[in-house]
Specification:
With 439 residues, this protein is of the alpha/beta class. Helix content is 45%, strand content 16%.
Length: 439
């Protein structure tokens, strides 16, 4: 039996049920004035598995779900598990299933928001799906960490997991709907310029001016450091966590020396490693492992760490100059941006690594997709002629990929190197290339 106060809280969260004639108005208030369609919306919806949307804080997860299920209003049941009363009163998935069947049999969709606040989120989702409600169940979470770490139960077969990150350049370009190739290039260049400095968290990107964007990024970073770190993940050394973030922000593209980071942060290596894992599970940073034919080297090799979003990275360093051409970190900005854009397009089975040979040859990124490899080098330079570096030639000789991309700011040209097509392309061309190879 669900207590009366729980029932009242549910009604408060779902006013469209009490006033169905006003459902459209209620739902519209949950959507921003400007909505950018997300690529993940193209995937099919299941009513036999949970539609699990995970991603970093404020990446638009709840907004996207409301955009998908708003048409079911007023027959949508919404539960926000950030509410302590609901967490305690609906801790059992069996009780929730009974509540839906007995009191809300008319609902056509169930949306559970902020699932990461529940003690046993994974078990809860498993039990709810096993109850077979027969309606789409949408679940959002700021992190997959709790879903994976607090239970050994697998969600395999019970959840379709989708990741939602800040806007990609492709999503923003599609939203702009350019009418011709000239306008398309101009808009894309403007998008990239914004992403390089301020990133593309929805609220930040759609803000009206520079001051508002910086304020929003500051709030985001503090929420990550203070709220998620100390409250959600129970980190005791928040000062060390904060310092680690700043250190990682300053060494984009470099090999990560855990011992050095631990010494500077005054913690042990295990603590630094666990902090990076939390950051990765929270979709703030992502490790790139070394690419090699021998899997042992990939596992034991030293990784690199990139930020998913340039805006958070720049906020940690208080580096918001929009004159990117003269910034001393322009190479890091461009490399981190490329990493983020590639990551947003990768599937669950894909990987993004880097290559470094014993002789010192390096290639920034190696995409593994569909049993093929796609190397990519990033240079913040306006190349005029197709130049092939020694490192690029070494990789081509060693692995003979079908294509090798050199991302730069100006040159668009294709040359043949043996059986490898060497594509020199700009950011707008990178988007088209990713769409082609990741289909």
């Amino acid at each position: 039996m669900i207590a009366a106060e729980i029932q009242n809280r549910i009604r408060q969260m779902n006013p469209w049920m009490t006033y169905p004639d006003q459902a459209g108005a209620y739902i519209s208030r949950l959507l921003p004035p400007v909505y950018v369609d997300r690529a993940v919306e193209k995937t099919a919806v299941s009513d036999r598995r949970a539609n699990l949307i995970v991603g970093c804080r404020q990446s638009g997860k709840s907004t996207m779900i409301w955009h998908r299920i708003g048409g079911f209003a007023p027959n949508v049941l919404f539960l926000n598990m950030e509410d302590p009363l609901l967490r305690s009163g609906l801790a059992s998935p069996v009780e929730l299933a009974e509540l839906v069947r007995e009191d809300y049999a008319f609902v056509e969709a169930l949306f559970i928001d902020e699932i990461q606040h529940m003690e046993e989120a994974g078990l809860f989702v498993k039990g709810l799906i096993d109850s077979r409600l027969g309606i789409p169940v949408w679940i959002s979470g700021s992190s997959s960490y709790d879903l994976r770490s607090k239970t050994r139960e697998s969600l395999a077969g019970r959840a379709v997991r989708r990741r939602l990150l800040p806007f990609s350049a492709g999503e923003l370009l599609d939203h702009a709907r350019p009418s011709n190739p000239v306008e398309k290039r101009h808009i894309h260049e403007s998008i990239v310029s914004m992403q390089l400095v301020f990133g593309s968290y929805p609220a930040v990107y759609l803000a009206e001016d520079r001051a508002e964007r910086i304020m929003l990024l500051s709030d985001l970073a503090e929420a990550l450091i203070l709220r998620d770190a100390s409250d959600l993940f129970k980190i005791k050394r928040v000062d060390a966590f904060r310092k680690l973030l700043s250190l990682l922000a300053g060494q984009i593209g470099n090999l990560v020396n855990l011992s050095e980071l631990a010494s500077i942060c005054n913690v042990d290596v295990g603590t630094v490693s666990s902090y990076i894992e939390i950051l990765e599970e929270s979709h703030i940073v992502k490790k790139a492992l070394p690419f090699a034919e021998g899997k042992r080297r990939e596992i034991t090799g030293t990784p690199k760490v990139y930020f998913i979003d340039n805006g958070i990275r720049n906020q940690l360093l208080n580096a918001f100059s929009t004159q990117t051409e003269i910034r001393p970190d322009k190479g890091q900005l461009f490399e981190n941006w490329a990493f983020g854009e590639i990551t947003k397009g990768l599937g669950i089975q894909d990987s993004l690594k880097f290559w470094r040979s014993k002789s010192g040859a390096e290639v920034d990124f190696v995409i593994e997709h569909g049993g093929k490899i796609f190397p990519l080098e990033v240079k913040f330079a306006s190349l005029k002629n197709p130049e092939i570096s020694r490192s690029m030639r070494s990789f081509i000789d060693a692995y003979r990929p079908e294509e090798f991309v050199l991302l730069n700011m100006a040159l668009e040209e294709t040359v043949e190197v043996g059986r490898t097509r060497l594509l020199f392309t700009t950011p707008v061309g990178l988007q088209a290339w990713l769409n082609r190879i990741l289909q």
